[in-house]
């Protein structure tokens, strides 16, 4: 098996010890990598992996937070609440019922809580979007609700009756569009409705039903950095101290735009429980060590052949 020459035998024994230190170092290096960092560094990573679920709205993540998603997991102002399986988002002046969220397009269908719950419980404020956070996502049409109006001279469609503080007039009615002229009524408010659903209705629509169908807004918060972060295996968070997005990586200190990939992880974004993670990773690193063994023994054999020839 070994060459006869005493001389070459000694050489090969000398060479055979060479690949060993490489393997040893690799094992130490891998051991270090698969040992999780201790402490709170992964706390935010963990909690920002929670999804917001409420009634029919499920799987919601950055830039939204709320419920089991702490404040540092979403953009300020995009807090979602859950009440009786109803998702609610609140702005400075109004609460909105969230009917649908499409996280791919960042489009939300919302409706004012106040008027869609109780027409007489409406706050007399116009519906004005926070232009930093939202823009209209599709064509819409304003409806103007008038409250505390004098009795109409002729019957009016979409009339309603509500007591209003400060006047004995209880008549109310809904007008399409935004009223530009002075109204005879005590108060009025403007509510957007989806133009599409408006067009689909035949005859005189129940305008309050239109209000309940909501309107579409697009969240303007830029999530491109978040997408890159998630594609590198990270989770999206928000640094409340510096007021900016941060990429959270498992077992890595925050601060980089994307997570550092390790050569034996074939970068998939879904990372289950830390336990599952560890076991799959150690089996992968085991395979890697084995591969290295094969490579180094091939290297040894090759080298030996060169020497013996
Ligand atoms: C949730 O249900 C409770 C009890 O039925 C009720 O008092 C409350 O107004 C409801 N909230 C919403 C947002 O519907
Ligand atoms: C709807 O009403 C709002 C608030 O009164 C106004 O700012 C907006 O321009 C109106 N939009 C349309 C399409 O009339
Ligand atoms: C093994 C595995 O989980 N593969 C997934 C990696 O991620 C892509 C999408 O990003 C999935 O399509 C694969 O199934």
From TrEMBL:
Residues covered by the Wall-associated receptor kinase galacturonan-binding domain: 48-112
Q: Which Pfam families match?
A: GUB_WAK_bind (PF13947), WAK_assoc (PF14380)
Subcellular location(s) per record? Membrane
* Catalytic activity, EC: 2.7.11.1
Q: Which PANTHER family does this chain map to?
A: KINASE-LIKE PROTEIN, OS01G0690200 PROTEIN
Q: Which domain of life is it from?
A: Eukaryota
Say yes or no: keyword Membrane present: no
Q: What is its main location?
A: membrane
**Reactions catalysed:** L-threonyl-[protein] + ATP = O-phospho-L-threonyl-[protein] + ADP + H(+); L-seryl-[protein] + ATP = O-phospho-L-seryl-[protein] + ADP + H(+)
Task: Report keywords, A-Z.
Answer: Glycoprotein, Signal
By what name is this protein known?
Answer: non-specific serine/threonine protein kinase
